[in-house]
Write a structure and sequence with these properties.
Shape: globular
Structural class: alpha/beta
Largest sheet: 8 strands, parallel, barrel
CATH class of the largest domain: Alpha Beta
Helix content: 40-55%
Strand order of the largest sheet: 1-2-3-4-5-6-7-8
CATH topology of the largest domain: TIM Barrel
Number of strands: 16
Radius of gyration: 24 Å
Catalytic activity: 3-methyl-2-oxobutanoate + acetyl-CoA + H2O = (2S)-2-isopropylmalate + CoA + H(+)
Pathway: Amino-acid biosynthesis; L-leucine biosynthesis; L-leucine from 3-methyl-2-oxobutanoate: step 1/4
Pfam family, one: HMGL-like
GO biological process, one term: L-leucine biosynthetic process
InterPro entries: 2-IPM_HCS-like, 2-isopropylmalate_synth_dimer, AIPM/Hcit_synth_CS, Aldolase_TIM, LeuA/HCS_post-cat, LeuA_allosteric_dom_sf, LeuA_bact_synth, PYR_CT
Number of helices: 18
Length: about 550
C-alpha cells in the first residue's frame, strides 16, 4: 500500500533560530534573531521555529517579537512535555497570525531510563497531557517522539496514536543523534504508517541530524516514504554535526523535482543571501566546498571543466548560480552616493530602515566609502547586520591605540564604554597587536575572559575589503564577572559568549568583536544565575 500523500508540496520547517542556535559558540540577540526571521519570511519557508521560550527571558522576548512582527510563515515555539513549558510557549507565540506549539518527549528506552528516569507508561501519560494542553491553547500542534530512530517502533506507534487522538496536526519523527540510514529510516516510517493509520490524517515530518553525514539523504528518504514536512537549518547548523541543510534539501527538490514529482514553496533566489546573513550573524563560516552555497560550488579549476563551461554551462553545472541569488551583487555605491541612494540600495536588499537607524547606517557607509573605491551589496549587508549587534546593551570598544614593532612587545590602550555608560581605560602588552587589545579590554572591564576561537574573513575581495572578525570567549570566573554567587549546580560549568564585527581595519574589527563576545558571555552568566531551576540553567548553558 502506498504511503505517499496526495500533496506534491514539501513544507520547509526552518529551525535555524532554535536547533541552529544550539551550535557551540552561537549567541544571537533579539534584533539579530528578528532579522534572520524576516529573511526566512522573504525566503518563503513554511514554518519558522523561532526558539525555546522557557529557556531564558531573552529567548522568550525574541520568540514573542518574531511572532508579532514576522508575517507569512507559521511561527512555532518549542516546549517540553510539561505544563510550564507549554504555557510559556503559547504566551510567546499567541500574537502570531499563524502560531504553532511544538512539544516533544523521548520514546527510546535509553532516554526514558537514563534521562527522564521514568517508564513507558509515564511517557504515554505525559504525551496525552501535553498534547491535550497544547491543543486547548493552539489549533496547530506538532508532536515529536525524541530519539525515535533508536526507539521500539511499536511503542513509538502507541505514543503517536495518543498524540493524534489528542489533536496533534503534525507528527515529527526525529533522528535525534544522526544514527539511522536512508533505507532504515524509510522502513521505520513505513512501519509507522502501517501501525498508525490515523497518521495519514496528519502531516508527517522528518528531522535529521548529520552525525554520520546523512541528514539530507535521510530527510529525502523520509520524503519518499511519505513525509511532507522537512525540518532544516540554514547552512546545516545545529547541535553537534548539525541539521539537514535547508539549501541542500530545497535545491535537491528544485533540481530533481520533475523526477520525484515534488516541490517546495521556497523562493530559491533568496538562498545565497540568507546563507550569508546567517553566517555573518552566527560567526559560523561556510566551508568553501559546501554544496549549493560554498564559494567553490560554482567554481571550476580544471582546464577541461573550464573549457566545457565556457562552451556550454550545462556541461559541468547542474544548477544555475542565479537560481540561488548569486547574481544579486550588482549594487555598487561609492563615496559620492547619497542617503537616498543608500536607502534604495538597502530596500533592494530587503532591509527597511528609516530615521535614526538610517542616519547611523549612512554615517558608517560614508566611513567605509572613504576607504573603499566601491561599496557592494555584500558590504551593505555586512554594514547593516553589524548595526544589529549594537542593539544589545553591554561593553563597547570606543577607541584603541596600538604600538607594535618587531623590537618590543606590542602594547595596546583601549577605552571601553560599560553597560552603565562609564568610559574605562585599560592597557596591556601581548603576543601581537590583537592579543594586546584583547588583554587590554579584559583590564578595562575587569572581566576574566579567555579567548577560545578567533577568525578573520574578508567580506569581499581586494586589498580594501571589509574584514569580518569572529570571536568566542569563555569566562574564567563567571561569578566574579557578574559580581554574584552561582548556585552550586553550576560550579565548573563553561560559560561562553560569541561576538562578530566588521571594519576595513581588522584590528578594530577584532577588538569590537571581542568586546561583544565579553558582553554575550556576561549576559549569559546573568541569565544562568537568575534561572529558576536546573533544567532552565542547563538549557541556557547548552546555547552559547
Amino acid at each position: 500500500m502506498s504511503t505517499t500523500p496526495s500533496s506534491d508540496a514539501v513544507l520547509i520547517f526552518d529551525t535555524t533560530l532554535r536547533d541552529g542556535e544550539q551550535s557551540p559558540g552561537i549567541s544571537l540577540n533579539t534584533a539579530e534573531k528578528l532579522e534572520i526571521a524576516q529573511q526566512l519570511a522573504r525566503l518563503n519557508v513554511d514554518i519558522i521555529e523561532a526558539g525555546f521560550p522557557i529557556a531564558s527571558p531573552g529567548d522568550f522576548e525574541a520568540v514573542q517579537a518574531i511572532a508579532r512582527q514576522v508575517h507569512g510563515p507559521v511561527i512555532c515555539g518549542l516546549a517540553r512535555a510539561n505544563a510550564a513549558d507549554i504555557d510559556r510557549a503559547w504566551e510567546a507565540i499567541r500574537d502570531s497570525e499563524r502560531p504553532r506549539i511544538h512539544t516533544f518527549l523521548s520514546t527510546s528506552d535509553i532516554h526514558i531510563e537514563h534521562q527522564l528516569m521514568s517508564t513507558r507508561e509515564d511517557v504515554k501519560g505525559l504525551a496525552r497531557a501535553s498534547v491535550a494542553q497544547a491543543k486547548a491553547l493552539c489549533a496547530d500542534v506538532e508532536f515529536s517522539p525524541m530519539d525515535a530512530t533508536r526507539a521500539d517502533v511499536e511503542f513509538t506507534a502507541e505514543v503517536l496514536q495518543i498524540a493524534l487522538d489528542e489533536g496533534a496536526t503534525t507528527i515529527n519523527v526525529p533522528d535525534t543523534v544522526g544514527y539511522t540510514m536512508p533505507d532504515e529510516y524509510a522502513a521505520f516510517l513505513a512501519r509507522l504508517y502501517e501501525l498508525v493509520p490515523d497518521l495519514r490524517k496528519a502531516v508527517l515530518s522528518v528531522h535529521c541530524h548529520n552525525d554520520l553525514g546523512l541528514a539530507v539523504a535521510n530527510s529525502f528518504a523520509g520524503v519518499q516514504a511519505g513525509a511532507r514536512q522537512v525540518e532544516t537549518a540554514i547552512n546545516g547548523i545545529g547541535e553537534r554535526a548539525g541539521n539537514a541543510a535547508l539549501e541542500e534539501m530545497v535545491m535537491l527538490l528544485h533540481t530533481r523535482g520533475s523526477s520525484v514529482g515534488l516541490h517546495t514553496n521556497v523562493t530559491t533566489t533568496e538562498i545565497a543571501r540568507t546563507s550569508r546573513l546567517v553566517s555573518r550573524l552566527t560567526g559560523y563560516a561556510v566551508q568553501p566546498n559546501k554544496a549549493i552555497i560554498g564559494r567553490n560550488a560554482f567554481a571550476h579549476e580544471s582546464g577541461i571543466h573550464q573549457d566545457g563551461v565556457l562552451k556550454h554551462r550545462e556541461t559541468y553545472e547542474i544548477m544555475d548560480a542565479r537560481s540561488i541569488g548569486l547574481d544579486a551583487n550588482s549594487i555598487v555605491l561609492g563615496k559620492h552616493s547619497g542617503r537616498a541612494a543608500l536607502k534604495q540600495a538597502l530596500q533592494d536588499l530587503g532591509f527597511t530602515i528609516d530615521g535614526a537607524t538610517l542616519n547611523t547606517a549612512f554615517k558608517k557607509f560614508k566611513e567605509i566609502a572613504d576607504k573603499k573605491k566601491q561599496v557592494t551589496a555584500m558590504d551593505l549587508e555586512a554594514l547593516v547586520t553589524d548595526e544589529l549587534r549594537d542593539e544589545i546593551s553591554g561593553y563597547t570598544l570606543e577607541w584603541f591605540d596600538v604600538e607594535a614593532s618587531s623590537r618590543r612587545p606590542p602594547h595596546a590602550t583601549v577605552a571601553v564604554k560599560t553597560p552603565d555608560g562609564e568610559i574605562v581605560e585599560g592597557r596591556f602588552t601581548g603576543d601581537g597587536p590583537i592579543d594586546a587589545i584583547f588583554r587590554a579590554i579584559n583590564a578595562a572591564t575587569g572581566v576574566d575572559a579567555r579567548l577560545r576561537e578567533f577568525r578573520v574573513d574578508a567580506v569581499t575581495g581586494g586589498q580594501d575589503a571589509l574584514g569580518e572578525a569572529s570571536v568566542v570567549v569563555e569566562l574564567g570566573d563567571p561569578a566574579a564577572a557578574i559580581k554574584a554567587d552561582f548556585d552550586g549546580v553550576l560550579k565548573g560549568e563553561r560559560v561562553t559568549g560569541a561576538g562578530q564585527a566588521v571594519a576595513t581595519d581588522i584590528i578594530q574589527a577584532a577588538g569590537t568583536a571581542y568586546a561583544r563576545a565579553v558582553t554575550s558571555a556576561v549576559h549569559k552568566a546573568q541569565a544562568v544565575a537568575q534561572a529558576g531551576d536546573a533544567d532552565e540553567r542547563a538549557a541556557l548553558l547548552s546555547t552559547p
